[in-house]
Amino acid sequence: MSSLNDSNDVYSSNYSSRSGLHGKVSPFSSPYLNYDPGYLPQAQPEFIFLDGASKQRGRFELAFGQIGGSCMIGAALGGASGFYNGLKATTLAGQTGKLRRTQLINYIMKKGSATANTFGSVAVIYSAFGVILSWARGGTDDDLNTIVAATATGCLYKSTAGLRKCGLGGAIGLGVSTAYALWVNRDKLSELRQFNPAQR
User: Fold this and answer.
1) Closest by alpha carbon to 148, among 166, 133, 168, 167?
2) pLDDT value at position 95?
3) What is the C-alpha to C-alpha distance for residues 139 and 129, in angstroms, rounded to an integer?
4) What's residue 196's pLDDT?
5) How would you class 155 by CB atoms within 10 Å of its CB: exposed for 0-12, middle for 13-18, buried for 19 or more?
6) Cβ distance 127 to 67 under 8 Å?
7) What is the pLDDT of residue 125?
8) pLDDT of res. 38
């Protein structure tokens, strides 16, 4: 009776000759299989997409996470700022006990909700511009959409404060979005810096 490592095993030799797998231990192919297991894919796709569907989430799908995340970040930053201002104000006023605790909660809630509202409003405007630009460009979503949407968001958010502040808001949006785009594409930029046309 032949073992799995027997070099005279007809199934092992046939399997090795067909699949090209050679080694110290010959793989065993069952006589009941009518196909070579070596042809089976070893890795399966992590996700399954519909035919013709995009393999990444679009602007509209990302908008919900961006708006919610912006609100939570704004609430956290505003709450921390309100806590600091509340501590300073209650200390100067000489408040203690329950009165001081109530004042601290008021400061935290007021500042946190105001900052969360600001961050959420900016995120809604930015997401709306991003979705419109992506739709207008036929589903294209790239860094140009990000920069244009951020610049337009800054201009629109400060549009009621005058022309000067409107331009300042647009400049801030342009600067932040450009810095973000450069950070995301830092690998490509490093490749461009190392590119030498003389080596081609």
Assistant:
1) 133
2) 85
3) 13
4) 62
5) buried
6) yes
7) 95
8) 67
The confidence score (pLDDT) of residue 164 equals 93
Q: Tokens 């006023």 sit at which residue?
A: 93
Per the CB < 8 A criterion, the answer to whether 115 and 78 are in contact is yes
Region for 140 from its dihedrals, namely left if φ exceeds 0, alpha if ψ lies in -120 to 50, beta otherwise: beta
Q: What is the pLDDT of residue 180?
A: 92
pTM for the structure as a whole: 0.66
Q: What is the 3-state secondary structure (H, E, C) of the chain?
A: CCCCCCCCCHHHHHHHHHHCCCCCCCCCCCCCCCCCHHHCCCCCCCCCCCCCCCCCCCHHHHHHHHHHHHHHHHHHHHHHHHHHHHHHHHHHHCCCHHHHHHHHHHHHHHHHHHHHHHHHHHHHHHHHHHHHHHHHCCCCCCHHHHHHHHHHHHHHHCHHHCHHHHHHHHHHHHHHHHHHHHHHCHHHHHHHHHCCHHHC
Q: One-letter amino acid identity for 199?
A: Q
What's the confidence (pLDDT) of residue 49? 58
Question: Contact at 8 Å (CB) between 126 and 153?
Answer: yes
Q: How far apart are CA 113 and CA 103, in angstroms?
A: 15
> Could you count the other beta carbons within 10 Å of the beta carbon of residue 6?
13
Residue numbers in the chain where pLDDT is lower than 50: 1-6, 9-19, 21-25
